[in-house]
């Protein structure tokens, strides 16, 4: 979907599901270094929830990719961390609260995310009470 133009992406998702019979959509983990909890992407999530279809999030160009050129670090670590950061943005940015029926699947990030969520939630709660 053309995520750099969210309204067009939402129309394309509706067209793909309604006319072509597709059963979901594909999203990059970031769009020009903007994570998916950014308000401009709301039309896509509204369309997905209206259609009741899942969205698959796949790693995209991680920020600072040029610093990971040695040893293929973008592939080895960059995608994992970018997807994990995107998941954290979805959680802490309130995306999943705004769209409680939204179904998301992701390619990478579950391991790093799972081990860090408890620590992050604790730190966020602690910081808000100080």
Explain the overall architecture.
With 130 residues, this protein is mainly alpha-helical. Helix content is 52%, strand content 12%. The protein is built from five helices and five strands; from the N terminus they run H-E-E-E-H-E-H-H-E-H. The chain has helices spanning 6-18, 42-51, 73-92, 95-98, 110-129; strands at 25-28, 30-31, 34-35, 55-58, 104-106. The strands form two sheets. The protein has a three-stranded parallel β-sheet, with no helix packed on it. Strands 2-3 form a two-stranded antiparallel sheet. Helix 1 (6-18) packs parallel to helix 2 (42-51) and helix 3 crosses helix 5. The longest helix has 20 residues, at 73-92. Residues 109-117 have low confidence and may be disordered.
Sketch the major β-sheet. 3 strands, parallel
> Ranges with pLDDT <50 over ≥5 residues?
109-117
Number of alpha- plus pi-helical segments: 5
In sequence order, what are the helices and strands, one letter per element? HEEEHEHHEH
* Backbone shape: globular
Task: Tell me the quaternary state.
Answer: single chain
Q: State the secondary-structure class.
A: mainly alpha
What's the average pLDDT?
Answer: 84
Q: What percent of residues adopt helix (DSSP H or I)?
A: 40-55%
Report the C-alpha radius of gyration, rounded.
16 Å
Quick synopsis:
By secondary structure, this protein is mostly helical.
């Amino acid at each position: 979907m053309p995520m750099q133009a969210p309204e067009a992406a939402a129309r394309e998702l509706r067209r793909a599901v309604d006319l072509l019979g597709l059963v979901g959509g594909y999203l990059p983990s970031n769009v020009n270094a903007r994570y998916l909890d950014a308000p401009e992407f709301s039309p896509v999530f509204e369309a997905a929830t209206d259609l009741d279809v899942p969205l698959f999030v796949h790693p995209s160009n991680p920020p600072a990719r040029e610093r990971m050129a040695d040893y293929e670090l973008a592939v080895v670590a960059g995608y994992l961390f970018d997807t994990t950061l995107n998941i954290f943005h979805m959680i802490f940015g309130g995306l999943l609260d705004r769209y409680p029926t939204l179904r998301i699947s992701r390619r990478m990030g579950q391991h790093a995310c799972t081990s860090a969520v408890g620590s992050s939630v604790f730190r966020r709660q602690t910081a808000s009470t100080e």
